[in-house]
């Protein structure tokens, strides 16, 4: 590709400040930005980034169709909400305009096992208009490619166990509330934990009916099984409240979480496969206390037993860098909703990103 990759940023919150800067520093060109917050609409994106004006102002999401038609970007980077249902309007307007789109939305990484109908609809629309849609971020690498690469060093695997934690303060109010942060234990059990006893079929139906929100590991286990060639026999999910012994103030929730109330949750997903490999993965998202920090621990049981531990990963920055590094592959990918286990393993962009694009 000879010209710079043209990018529109959809959603100008916390994550976008890294995404837009990384796009610029990897040789991309920001040609537009969209948001629904009246406090940022009309501002130059340079002002948001703390640099000189770039001549690109944030437009309302209501003008998304118009902006995409005017700017004709190569890619739209979406950093808004965490479910496919919430994300559908953004993906749809991109697909209708034939614009490749990639999102930080956690469910978007592998939505086929949680929002099949929405994903199939988007897949068909993207194929019709010759563009690619997908999700990427921290899980793409640190719960995905890193794990499947290490699996290639094993003689035999009987179980893969993973535990990853993150501070819900870093990702905005929608994610914090979705993790039950601030709820009493009684209210948590009623609103989130009351579906913990469901079997595989019941859980899948409850997710389809919108009664149960799939945890990030629900989608991640689907991604891992697809990449490893495993056939899922059953998959269940349990959401357990996490607490702190002292009061914790949450700036994201703008409230003090009382000692003993839910600071968030641990979502545990257990997947049994026909090949005899079990995946037991959990993501712990909660309001951190003063001694808490991000962790990412994985263990392979089998021969030989193998473990990897990543302490204090810069989860937000790694999410954004992983996504930006995916952009050339997104542009080159076949049309449709393409999950990233079907793309090449992600790699660092030494040259400007347009130098890696082969299809134009």
UniProtKB/TrEMBL annotation:
The keyword NADP applies. Residues 6-102 form the Dihydrodipicolinate reductase N-terminal domain. GO terms for molecular function: 4-hydroxy-tetrahydrodipicolinate reductase. InterPro entries: DAP_DH_C, DapB_N, NAD(P)-bd_dom_sf. Keywords: NADP, Oxidoreductase. Residues 145-357 form the 2,4-diaminopentanoate dehydrogenase C-terminal domain. GO terms for biological process: lysine biosynthetic process via diaminopimelate. This is Dihydrodipicolinate reductase. It comes from Clostridium sartagoforme AAU1.
